[in-house]
Amino acid sequence: MAILETIQGILLAMWIAIVLFLLSGFFFIDDKKKIRVFIVREQSAAIMERLGKFKREVRPGLHWKIPFVDRIAAILNLRVLSLNFSAEHTRTKDEVLVDLNFSVQWRIRNERGMPSAAYYVLSDLQAQIKSMVLDTTRTLIPDTTLDNLFTRKNDIAKEVESKIKTLMDGIFKESPATEAQISAIDIIKVLIEDINPPEAVAEAMNAIEAEKRQTIAAKSRAENERRLKVADAEAMRDAIKTIREDNQGMSEREILAAFLEMQRLETWRTMGAGKTVLIAGGDPITRGIVAGNEATREGQGRAD
């Protein structure tokens, strides 16, 4: 009886050891790649290898692995990520060295087979994305002047983005490690956030812009003055025409004298600002013409 109890105790201990051993095969993956229990987090994917060979992609949820046989080769973040870096000392067409600050928004595609393709095709995702952007930038910027670089910043960023996507697709199509027909890396957006020319160049550009604005302002003032002069000349022409039509038989000298008298009267009226002003001078004919015009004006005012 004692022997039987001993055997049962040994068997129970063995079963407990086996259960604990099997439970060690459950795991939990978080962003710090720690192995805990039971679950893979959302927006993550784990790459499982069996005896050094790719076995499957582990998706969010409860999973099992065989201890000492299966291993988690990597945990990939499937969320949208941002990669920020600078392209330093990039030479423009007009021989200016500039620093470009880039921001690349990218992610690993979530479709089945894409996380494993990204892991086995590209050894360092962010470093290779950065390298592609820098290489593409250094082929585009030498054909662009500094002024165009500022004005076409968004267009250049879109061109870099397009070329990077094409390069990525080519890498995955040609890789023997995957049968993917498109890149497992989705380049969402490439932005040129800032352009930093040398300080001396920046100061010169600011001075040039200030001079341009001053030139535009001077041209605007000159144009306004020209329009005022044209308007004054047209008003003079119309006034002389009216005097000529209302006073047939007058000589050109008398018409001009009458016009000047009207101008003098208008000047004094403006200076008087509504006050009564007595004005002496002028020949009788001119005063008669002016008086007639004043009477006409007053009559029109009462009619209105």
Topology:
Blueprint: H1 2-23, E1 39-40, E2 44-50, E3 53-58, E4 61-62, E5 70-77, E6 81-91, E7 97-108, H2 114-121, H3 125-140, H4 146-151, H5 153-174, E8 185-196, H6 199-246, H7 252-272, H8 284-303
The rough form would be described as rod-shaped
Class derived from helix and strand content: alpha+beta
Secondary-structure element sequence?
Answer: HEEEEEEEHHHHEHHH
CATH topology-level name of the largest domain: Tetrahydropterin Synthase, Chain A
> How many β-strand stretches?
8
Number of helices: 8
What integer is the average pLDDT?
76
Radius of gyration: 44 Å
In the CATH hierarchy, the architecture of the largest domain is 2-Layer Sandwich
Share of helix among residues?
A: 40-55%
The largest sheet, given as strand count, sense and whether it forms a barrel, is:
3 strands, antiparallel
Q: What name goes with the CATH superfamily of the largest domain?
A: Band 7 domain
Describe this structure in words.
With 304 residues, the protein is α+β, with helices and mostly antiparallel strands. It has four domains: 2-77, no CATH class; 81-197, 2-Layer Sandwich (Tetrahydropterin Synthase, Chain A), CATH 3.30.479; 201-246; 247-304. The chain has eight helices and eight strands. The protein has helices spanning 2-23, 114-121, 125-140, 146-151, 153-174, 199-246, 252-272, 284-303; strands spanning 39-40, 44-50, 53-58, 61-62, 70-77, 81-91, 97-108, 185-196. The chain has a three-stranded antiparallel beta sheet with strand order 3-2-5, covered by helices on one side. A hairpin with a 2-residue loop joins β2 and β3 (53-58).
